[in-house]
């Protein structure tokens, strides 16, 4: 009896298995469709409009970033769907600057999303890649000290030295030059000096040595795209087999990594050198300040953090961002004869009346209101970070700008959208118009509050003082020294957004004033 029952049971199992096999080609797509429909309609975010693909897959975001035109894509999405757009199954993009202020403000428990974890180094996250707020806060407290404006001012001699090299190069190449390339080389060389008291030599050689800049940009391209689906990182960069493919050197710029390692090595043991590279030098570079921070609080800021922060500043955060901003400044100023003539006249008048030194200082640049307005306007209309800044809503949910959102929702904001808000910046917010900063003090203060070119809150850019110091010194100086003209005034600047908006094509005719 028992054996008959067992035989019949095994035969029905066989039938079931054979049926499953028979229907498998239909079953798998069916289950997938059910899963996708659940993602689209079963989510509490279903009431928010957005592209259909985005409601059930992150593929939409991935393809948008891969296009290199993310600022245009996200702007178009908000123009079509309104102030809150569902850009992925669990992600909303907000266009309102008020929402961005709340999202980025410190102490609300909004953490960075897994997007950031894709950026190297995975083994020792730096200030940018660290997604644990408490660990981030601990590290940032130490790293903030050397990045303060007072500390940065002491680095002025490093910047001045690099300025001399740039000027000598431009003096020797009067006529047609790619100003964008020179500004890019300048931004890198300043960082080499500031961080390690070492010249990378981009300006001297006038080329992208060892394809360093290209390697960094390729890495950013990868980070921006794979960051949309961070799980893919296990398949690629974090996959040991990936490293065996010789053509791929994602995230590893030999020149910069080697320089960082050498400089750290030379200063060991830290207890003895105090982080100084040269016992005679009276200049303190960034690495020395970071080592001092490490010596004071080795438990909060380990040796790995010293390396990660110094290396990250150069190989990721500080170079493309500053170069892109300077290129935007020149492109906007040069293509509008009215703006160019106003800013040049301000600089030359100040210079003639003895208000500018031969090498413009930070304090002097602050006394050039029209120049300051042009710089702000460049950072407003073309912020250097082109992809979204995103944060996670904590478990239990939270309100953003009056909208209740469930825990685990990712919320994104984008400077290219936020800075074009007509309520804050005016009906002509899409236009480059420096005057908007000079018309009314109250209005200018309000606009300032809603500028996100350096992010905000606890993740406000740590390098903003360095970038501002550098730009305030070199930009007016170039306007003072040279007559500059766009070769192709009607041609847009080529912009390829990876994480930063990497720009090219700033070709100009340059002539020394008075020559
Ligand atoms: C004009 C130049 C720059 C721009 C426009 C810029 C922009 C930004 C933005 C928007 C963020 C916030 C990103 C986010 O929350 O997802 C950020 C963060 C950061 N930036 Fe910059 N940056 C510039 C220059 C620099 C420089 C020169 C350095 C270092 C030398 C630097 C280092 C960092 C770091 C470490 C972070 C992470 C801060 C944190 O999460 O606490 N940046 N930057």
TrEMBL record:
Highest taxon in the source lineage: Eukaryota
Cofactor(s) needed: heme
Pfam families: p450
SUPFAM superfamilies assigned to the protein according to its UniProt record, in alphabetical order: Cytochrome P450
InterPro entries for the chain: Cyt_P450, Cyt_P450_CS, Cyt_P450_E_grp-IV, Cyt_P450_sf, Cytochrome_P450_monoxygenase
Family: Belongs to the cytochrome P450 family.
Listed name of the protein: Cytochrome P450 monooxygenase
The species this protein was found in: Hyphodiscus hymeniophilus
């Amino acid at each position: 009896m028992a054996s008959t029952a067992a035989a019949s049971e095994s035969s029905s199992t066989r039938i079931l298995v054979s049926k499953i096999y028979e229907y498998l080609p239909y079953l798998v797509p069916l289950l997938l469709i059910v899963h996708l429909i659940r993602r689209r309609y079963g989510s509490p975010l279903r009431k928010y409009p957005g592209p259909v693909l985005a409601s059930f897959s992150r593929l939409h975001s991935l393809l948008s970033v891969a296009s290199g035109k993310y600022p245009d894509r996200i702007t178009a999405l908000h123009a079509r769907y309104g102030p809150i757009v569902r850009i992925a199954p669990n992600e909303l993009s907000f266009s309102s600057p008020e929402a961005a202020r709340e999202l980025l403000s410190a102490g609300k428990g909004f953490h960075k999303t897994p997007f950031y974890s894709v950026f190297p180094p995975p083994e020792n996250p730096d200030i940018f890649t660290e997604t644990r707020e408490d660990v981030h806060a601990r590290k940032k407290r130490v790293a903030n000290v050397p990045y303060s404006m007072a500390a940065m001012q002491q680095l002025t001699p490093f910047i001045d030295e690099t300025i001399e090299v740039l000027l000598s190069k431009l003096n020797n190449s009067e006529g047609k030059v790619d100003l964008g390339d020179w500004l890019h080389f300048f931004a890198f060389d300043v960082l080499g000096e500031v961080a390690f008291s070492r010249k990378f030599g981009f300006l001297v050689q006038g080329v992208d040595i060892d394809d360093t800049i290209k390697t960094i940009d390729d890495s950013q391209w990868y980070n921006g795209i794979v960051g949309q689906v961070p799980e893919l990182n296990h398949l690629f960069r974090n996959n040991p087999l990936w490293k065996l493919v010789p053509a791929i050197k994602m995230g590893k710029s030999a020149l910069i990594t080697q320089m960082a390692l050498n400089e750290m090595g030379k200063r060991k043991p830290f207890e003895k050198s105090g982080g100084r590279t040269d016992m005679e030098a009276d200049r303190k570079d960034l690495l020395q300040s970071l080592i001092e921070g490490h010596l004071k609080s080795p438990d909060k800021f380990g040796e790995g953090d010293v390396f990660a922060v110094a290396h990250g500043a150069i190989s990721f955060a500080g170079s493309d961002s500053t170069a892109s901003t300077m290129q935007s400044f020149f492109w906007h100023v040069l293509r509008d004869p009215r703006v160019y003539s106003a800013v040049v006249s301000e600089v030359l008048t100040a210079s003639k009346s003895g208000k500018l030194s031969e090498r413009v200082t930070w304090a002097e640049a602050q006394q050039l209101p029209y120049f300051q307005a042009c710089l702000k306007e460049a950072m407003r209309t073309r912020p250097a970070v082109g992809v979204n800044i995103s944060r996670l809503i904590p478990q239990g949910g939270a309100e953003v700008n009056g909208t209740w959102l469930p825990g685990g929702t990712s919320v994104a904001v984008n400077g290219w959208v936020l800075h074009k808000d007509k309520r804050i910046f005016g009906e002509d917010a899409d236009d480059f118009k420096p005057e908007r900063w000079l018309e009314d003090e109250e209005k200018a203060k309000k606009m300032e509050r809603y500028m996100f070119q350096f992010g905000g809150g606890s993740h406000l850019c740590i390098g903003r003082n360095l970038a501002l110091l550098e730009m305030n010194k070199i930009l007016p100086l170039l306007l003072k020294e040279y007559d500059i003209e766009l070769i192709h005034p009607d041609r847009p600047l080529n912009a390829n957004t990876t994480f930063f908006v990497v720009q090219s094509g700033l070709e100009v005719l340059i002539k020394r004033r008075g020559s």
